[in-house]
């Protein structure tokens, strides 16, 4: 009757860690205060799992910032610029690497596989001096033990650590990260020996990179690494944990032949083929940690179905060798449903957050051992049944309309060149037209107005009046700055997905459903539980109000279907693309209503299009096809003279450039200023782009105000690569996090730069 949890959220049920971190960073509390909050969180998590009956409880899954940065600390792989002089790594060095300090910027951060979690990328060169510099894993193991909980310490496996790293500056092209394996393994040995001495019986190595497309040499690194660790590991049970996708047959073979390894953790939720691999060949005497409870979503497990999967696996691996587990760390789900006081009871019965998933894992393990909690299973079965039959989930008209889209194609009637001509006749814009991405600074006052309206503390009239005044201010400012295509500033929006989700059917919202994005930052994704439709127009009132304040074109501002999908918890009872098509139809209704209301330029943001790219290359084409199709569905019905913009928040899109072209937008604005070369190189290499394009001319993530010359210089660089008549001039992204004191001079310099260059063409 064994159960295991791969990892657990660290933030706490009410984001206690976030507040403790931020207060420490702001020097409002001491290191001891922060350590106390952290210790209390760890202790309550361990005790909660122990009380639930979990046998293999993880430790070292807590982190003050990021588990990969923790591994970097263990290995003492601090980049020299942080001036660390050896010894145990303390908060100073640790948080400098994470967040930068007055003189040195932070290390690079990137997405953790296809999740919305971001990790700090290790930077490794040939001359890093590895040393055992953080005893966190051992300390946490001992801490739990002192509380009476014997845990399974978790380390990022040595090969995944290297594969997730990047070569240090200067050796990018020449350096093989895997060549560092012999240098880091001695440190791993020290950690393992210490854990053993402290009494650990098990150890878990997370090796999620095993699910990626790996070549033979990379796979060989796993074989070599664990062979090297074998002696040190002897006497311990060793679990290699993989997650987020299936293993290829080669990776599975490599995994199951690793020396010194006694247990394999496999994701049976995302890994749909994995079961077949297990059935066809599972090494005798080894443990299978079967990840049947989804760590990436908030849905209650279908316990009956999981139980029958587990029973089938038990027949293959043997009764005492099967351990019930989560598909991955629960880091990627919300913390505790108990705190959701505002969710409707029926919807709540369909959900399970981390705390509830722990209970599910245990219930499954007990049922396997013949101690089925009948009441728990019956309640679960009736919740599953209610979810299947509930009228709030199913909307037949929507299902039909979405199904009808599948086989067909949706494109605007004419090509982009003809459309741009028609639009130019109507809009009459100068060359190098200027615009912004949508949001203007969100002042405290504005947030207060929205909050009070939501809480019914101010009337709708007062709210509308306040928002109108804000829009008027933003419109006047843009006219004064002489920007060509205006925006209304998005003062009515708190978040670009939540704003639409709240007005669409099929969405639910939590109060405390936070998920860590990076460091102390959390997001609260909406839950898409049913068929999506749009009961009434969502933005038309604000956009036409804004348009009535100016003669210049006012951009309608929408979030695209793929971004809404990728930034939500998505239903798991139908394929993702089906949900995406439904959202696309709802946005299409909105686009057409905006057009009818006289809005001639409509921006449909797809900030998260690239994020949804599957981990495995073999699945890329399918995703890109339906994602791009969904975007086109939203605007295929508009007239030639209606100009469709889209916007994306990253420049690294070499791998999806053809999808971007295939989106067939009239104008695309893209983040660019932090990596000029990456974006422009795509075009330099000969990719033809006929639509309008606005690579961001300055970084809105920084308070720095760029000068006119600097911006003009940037635009000139773009002009060297792109045709004059397709280039737009705009910042990188929305201005919502900036202050007016920064935005005014920056935009004024931006317009000045565009005007300067117009005179030189
Ligand atoms: N229109 C949104 C804004 O300006 C876009 C935000 C984004 O791309 N993340 O805020
Ligand atoms: Zn953006």
Q: Any chance you could write out the topology, listing elements then pairs?
A:
Layout: E1 2-3, H1 16-25, H2 31-52, E2 57-59, H3 67-74, H4 91-99, E3 109-111, E4 118-120, E5 123-124, H5 136-146, E6 151-156, H6 158-163, E7 166-167, H7 181-197, E8 202-206, H8 216-233, E9 237-241, H9 249-256, E10 263-267, H10 274-280, E11 287-293, H11 303-317, E12 322-326, H12 345-349, H13 354-368, H14 374-389, H15 396-405, H16 416-427, H17 444-454, H18 460-481, H19 498-501, E13 505-508, E14 515-518, E15 521-523, E16 527-533, H20 540-547, E17 555-559, H21 561-566, H22 576-596, E18 601-605, H23 620-635, E19 643-648, H24 657-662, E20 667-670, H25 676-684, E21 692-695, H26 708-719, H27 740-760
Parallel strand pairs: 1-12, 2-6, 5-7, 6-8, 8-9, 9-10, 10-11, 11-12, 17-18, 18-19, 19-20, 20-21
Antiparallel strand pairs: 3-4, 13-16, 14-15
Zinc ion binds next to loops.
